[in-house]
């Protein structure tokens, strides 16, 4: 690169007749200001990396949002199941209360059993009384029949 640069020496400057700002330095030896190019490259790289990171962040956000939505839907479904079970339990409890109010307790049952025994015993006694009365009537009838059979009628 140095060979392609023109060295401006005072001798060349005098012979060419042109005026130069610097007559002792090479044109190529001058350092170019590359900070602008470096800044542009850095800015481009940083922007590209930021865009890539934002894209992945947005993608992860979408995935997390979908997972959250799925878990919310599962929670809603299980909440509906629990609510249905609670309603069924409440209906069974209501039926159980109605049955408990309409059914007899052990005390009621034993009291009714005792009353039924009394009624049965009373009927049995009446039956025995009726039987003895019928037996008495049979005895009377037999005694009258014997009496009539032995007596002579004239």
How is the biggest beta sheet arranged?
Answer: none
Q: Give the termini distance in whole angstroms.
A: 187 Å
Kindly estimate the percentage of residues that lie in beta strands according to DSSP. under 5%
Give Rg in angstroms. 63 Å
Helix content class? over 70%
Query: SSE order in H/E notation?
Result: HHH
Per the principal axes of the C-alpha atoms, what is the gross shape?
rod-shaped
**Unreliable sequence segments:** 1-5
Secondary-structure content class: mainly alpha
Enumerate how many helices there are, as a single number.
3
On the 0-100 scale, what is the average pLDDT? Answer: 82
Strand segment tally: 0
Report on the structure:
The structure is a single chain. The relative contact order is 0.03. It contains three helices and no strands. 78% of the residues lie in helices and 0% in strands. The protein is rod-shaped. It is mostly helical.
Question: What distinguishing features does this structure have?
Answer:
single chain, 78% helix, 0% strand, rod-shaped, disordered N terminus
